[in-house]
C-alpha cells in the first residue's frame, strides 16, 4: 500500500510560520498529533467523506472537521441553500427571515427549547449560557466536570495556562464525571451560590477514554438542580444532532434548561445556537450578547437545510450503524494482530486507544501509519463519522488499519 | 506563599546543582576542580541545605549537609541565601575558616564559570559547543526545578495534582536521553539519564532547536510542525510539565 509524503504541506507550514503565530493554531495545530511527520497540514478540496491535501493525497476523514461535517463535504442540498441565500442577502443591516425560520425549526424539534439564539462558535453560546444562569439566579458559581471542555474562554481554562489569572476560574468548581455525590457535596458546600451546572451529554475528554452516563446519573442531577434552583446547561456542541434529532438529552432522558449547539448544526457553515426554556426567556433577552456576524443569513439557511436533511436520512440511526460496524471491524483487526483496541463513548463519535502500551506511543504510531495510508485518524480526540461514509470507505479503512498494524509489528 | 523559600530551594537544588555537571561539560571547569578535595555545605535556617562534594576531579551535589563538612556556610534565612545568589550578601561561615580564601577566589571563579553558561551573551550562542553546554544546563535547571515548583508554587501544585502519574523523558536527538521526571503519588522526582519505558517523551531534533524552545524564542507549536520537536506518549504529562517549568523563570529571573 502506498504511503504518503507531504512536501507541499510542509512548504505551506513554513510560510504560515512567517505570518501566523504557531503556523496553525488551536485544535488544528499539529502539536498533539505525536508522529507529526505522518500527517498532512493543509487541505485542497473535500467531497463526501474524503478530503484531499495540497499534495494530492486522499484521506477518508474520521475527524469530520472535528465535528462540523455530518452529512459529508460539499453536500448538494446544504451548499445550494447556502449559495441561494448568499445570492439574496447574507450579512445586512437588519435581521433575516431565515433567523426566525431556523429558530422555529429548533423549537419544533428540540423538546427542551421554547426559544433559540444564534452565534458563531460553541464558546459563544457556552459563555452566554453561563452568563444567563448568573443573571437568572443572582449567584456566582458554575459547576463543571473535570476534564470537560466548553471553549477557550478564561473561565473554562485550567490553572497555569498562559494568560489566565487565578480570578478567572475562581467561581468555576470542577467535579469528577458521573460522581453524583461530588455534585451533592458542592451544592451543599456552596448553598445558595451556585448559578449553573454545565456538562456534555457524556464525558468525552481529549487524551482520555470517553465515559457514558451511569444509570440514573442524569435523572439524579436534574432532580438536585431543580431542588436548588440551579440552571442546568447542556453543552451539546460536539454531540448535538449526532445522537438524537432533538438533542442528546433525549438519548439519555433528561431535561436541561439551556442547550448549546454548534458543530453539526449547519454541516460546516459557521453557526452556533443556544436554546432554552420559557422560564429563561425574559432574562435571556436582558443579557446583552452579540457579534458582528451573528445575523449572517447564509449559514442559517445552511442550518435549516442540514436539519431537514438529517431528518430525511435519519442521521443518528445511520451514524450509529456505521460507527458500530467501523468499531467492531477495527477491534477484530487489532485482535488478529495481537493488539487490544479499546473503543469508548458513543459508536458514531468514539474514542480509540490501543491498550497494549499505557504510554500511548504505540497508539500514536498506529494512527500515524493509518493516516499516511489514507485514513485520517487523530490519536487523542474522539473521531466522528458522517452519513457520507460508505461501505466502500469502511472496507478501505479496515484494509488500511490491517496494514498499519502489520507495519507496527514489522517495526517492532 | 513563601517565595523566598521556593527561590532558595531552586537556587540550591536546580541552579547550584549544575556544578555537578559543569566539569564534565567544560574543560576549564574540570581543570579548576581537578585537585579539590573538600565538601562545602550550604545551610539555611528554616530552609533547605545542600552540599557540594569535590574529589578526584568530580563534583557531587547532595540535598543535605553531612555531619562534618569541610566548609559550612550558614544563612539566617532563605532570603539571605537568595541575596548571596544575587551577589548582594555574604554567608556566615560556621566551619572551614581556613578555606575562606578558597571560597572567595577559586570557588567564586567556578560559580562565575557556571554563570557564564547559564546567562549567555547572545553572540556566544553562535558557537555550537557553548550552545550545547548552555542548553543542557538550562534544561537540567528546568527539570530539577519542577519538583520544588510542584511542591511550593500554588499554581504549579495545582497543575501537578492534575498531571497523570508517569514519567517524562527529555531527549535531544544527537545526545540521547538527557534527564527525566517521575510523577507519582509521592510527588515529582527529577533525575538525569534514561528511562527504560517512559510514559512520555519530549524529543528535540538538535541542540539549537532545544535552545530556542527552552529560551522561548521558538514556540512549541511551530517547532512540532517543523519537526524540531516531537511530543510522544502521554501528552498531558508534557503539557503540564512545560507549564510548571515555565514558572521557574519567575523566581530565577
Q: What Rg of chain B is obtained from the alpha carbons, in whole angstroms?
A: 18 Å
How many helical stretches of chain B?
11
> How many separate domains make up the residues of chain B?
2
Radius of gyration from the alpha-carbon trace of chain A, in angstroms: 22 Å
CATH level-two architecture of the largest domain in chain B:
2-Layer Sandwich
**Which percent range fits the helix content of chain A?**
25-40%
What characterizes the major β-sheet of chain B?
A: 5 strands, mixed
Under CATH, the topology of the largest domain in chain B can be stated as Nonspecific Lipid-transfer Protein, Chain A
Distance between the termini of chain A: 19 Å
Shape of chain A: globular
Alpha-carbon distance between the termini of chain B?
Answer: 18 Å
Alpha-beta content class of chain A: alpha/beta
Strand content of chain A: 5-15%
Quaternary status? heterodimer
Helix/strand/pairing category of chain B:
alpha+beta
Q: Looking at this structure, what is the CATH superfamily of the largest domain in chain A?
A: Type I PLP-dependent aspartate aminotransferase-like (Major domain)
CATH architecture of the largest domain in chain A: 3-Layer(aba) Sandwich
Question: Which descriptor suits the 3D outline of chain B?
Answer: globular
Mean pLDDT over all positions of chain A: 97
Amino acid at each position: 500500500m502506498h504511503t504518503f509524503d507531504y512536501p507541499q504541506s510542509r512548504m505551506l507550514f513554513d510560510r504560515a510560520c512567517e505570518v501566523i503565530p504557531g503556523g496553525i493554531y488551536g485544535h488544528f495545530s499539529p502539536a498533539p498529533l505525536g508522529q507529526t511527520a505522518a500527517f498532512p497540514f493543509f487541505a485542497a478540496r473535500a467531497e463526501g467523506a474524503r478530503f484531499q491535501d495540497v499534495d494530492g493525497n486522499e484521506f477518508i476523514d474520521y475527524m469530520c472537521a472535528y465535528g462540523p461535517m455530518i452529512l459529508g463535504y460539499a453536500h448538494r442540498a446544504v451548499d445550494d441553500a447556502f449559495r441561494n441565500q448568499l445570492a439574496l442577502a447574507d450579512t445586512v443591516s437588519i435581521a433575516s427571515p431565515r433567523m426566525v425560520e431556523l429558530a422555529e425549526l429548533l423549537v419544533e424539534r428540540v423538546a427542551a427549547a421554547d426559544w433559540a439564539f444564534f452565534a458563531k462558535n460553541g464558546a459563544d453560546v457556552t459563555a452566554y449560557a453561563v452568563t444567563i444562569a448568573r443573571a437568572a439566579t443572582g449567584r456566582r458559581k458554575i459547576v463543571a466536570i473535570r476534564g470537560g471542555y466548553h471553549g477557550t474562554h478564561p473561565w473554562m481554562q485550567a490553572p497555569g495556562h498562559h494568560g489566565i489569572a487565578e480570578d478567572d476560574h475562581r467561581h468555576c468548581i470542577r467535579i469528577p464525571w458521573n460522581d453524583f455525590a461530588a455534585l451533592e457535596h458542592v451544592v451543599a458546600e456552596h448553598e445558595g451560590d451556585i448559578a449553573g451546572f454545565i456538562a456534555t451529554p457524556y464525558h468525552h475528554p481529549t487524551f482520555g477514554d470517553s465515559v457514558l452516563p451511569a444509570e440514573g446519573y442524569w435523572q439524579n442531577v436534574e432532580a438536585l438542580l431543580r431542588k436548588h434552583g440551579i440552571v442546568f446547561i447542556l453543552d451539546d456542541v460536539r454531540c448535538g444532532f449526532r445522537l438524537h434529532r432533538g438533542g442528546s438529552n433525549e438519548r439519555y432522558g433528561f431535561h436541561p434548561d439551556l442547550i448549546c449547539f454548534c458543530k453539526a448544526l449547519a454541516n460546516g457553515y459557521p453557526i452556533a445556537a443556544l436554546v432554552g426554556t420559557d422560564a429563561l426567556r425574559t432574562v435571556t433577552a436582558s443579557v446583552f450578547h452579540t457579534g458582528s456576524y451573528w445575523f449572517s443569513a447564509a449559514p442559517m439557511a445552511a442550518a435549516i437545510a442540514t436539519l431537514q436533511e438529517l431528518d430525511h436520512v435519519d442521521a443518528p440511526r445511520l451514524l450509529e450503524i456505521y460507527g458500530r460496524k467501523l468499531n467492531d471491524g477495527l477491534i477484530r483487526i487489532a485482535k488478529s494482530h495481537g493488539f487490544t483496541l479499546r473503543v469508548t463513548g458513543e459508536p458514531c463519535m468514539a474514542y480509540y486507544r490501543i491498550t497494549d502500551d499505557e504510554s500511548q506511543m504505540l497508539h500514536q504510531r498506529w494512527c500515524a501509519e493509518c493516516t499516511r495510508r489514507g485514513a485520517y485518524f487523530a490519536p487523542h480526540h474522539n473521531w466522528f463519522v458522517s452519513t457520507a461514509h460508505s461501505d466502500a470507505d469502511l472496507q478501505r479503512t479496515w484494509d488500511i488499519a490491517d496494514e498499519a498494524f502489520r507495519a507496527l509489528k514489522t517495526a517492532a | 506563599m513563601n517565595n523566598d523559600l521556593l527561590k532558595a530551594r531552586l537556587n540550591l537544588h536546580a541552579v547550584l546543582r549544575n556544578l555537578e555537571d559543569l566539569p564534565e561539560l567544560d574543560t576549564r571547569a574540570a581543570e579548576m576542580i581537578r585537585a579539590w578535595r573538600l565538601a562545602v555545605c550550604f545551610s539555611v535556617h528554616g530552609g533547605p541545605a545542600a552540599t557540594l562534594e569535590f574529589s578526584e576531579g568530580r563534583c557531587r551535589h547532595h540535598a543535605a549537609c553531612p555531619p562534618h563538612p569541610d566548609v559550612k556556610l550558614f544563612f539566617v534565612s532563605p532570603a539571605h541565601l537568595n541575596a548571596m545568589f544575587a551577589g548582594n550578601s555574604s554567608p556566615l561561615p560556621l566551619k572551614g575558616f581556613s578555606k575562606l580564601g578558597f571560597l572567595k577566589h577559586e570557588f567564586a571563579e567556578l560559580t562565575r564559570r557556571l554563570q557564564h553558561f547559564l546567562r549567555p551573551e547572545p553572540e556566544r550562542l553562535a558557537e555550537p559547543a557553548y550552545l550545547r553546554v548552555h542548553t543542557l544546563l538550562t534544561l537540567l535547571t528546568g527539570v530539577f526545578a519542577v519538583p520544588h515548583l510542584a511542591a511550593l508554587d500554588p499554581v504549579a501544585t495545582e497543575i501537578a495534582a492534575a498531571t497523570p502519574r508517569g514519567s517524562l523523558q527529555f531527549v535531544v536527538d544527537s545526545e540521547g536521553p538527557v534527564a527525566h521526571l517521575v510523577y507519582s503519588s509521592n510527588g515529582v522526582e527529577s533525575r538525569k539519564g534514561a528511562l527504560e519505558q517512559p510514559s512520555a517523551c519530549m524529543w528535540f531534533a538538535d541542540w539549537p532547536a532545544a535552545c530556542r524552545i527552552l529560551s522561548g524564542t521558538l514556540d512549541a507549536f511551530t517547532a512540532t510542525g517543523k519537526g524540531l520537536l516531537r511530543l510522544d506518549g502521554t501528552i498531558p504529562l508534557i503539557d503540564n510539565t512545560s507549564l510548571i517549568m515555565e514558572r521557574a523563570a519567575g523566581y530565577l529571573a
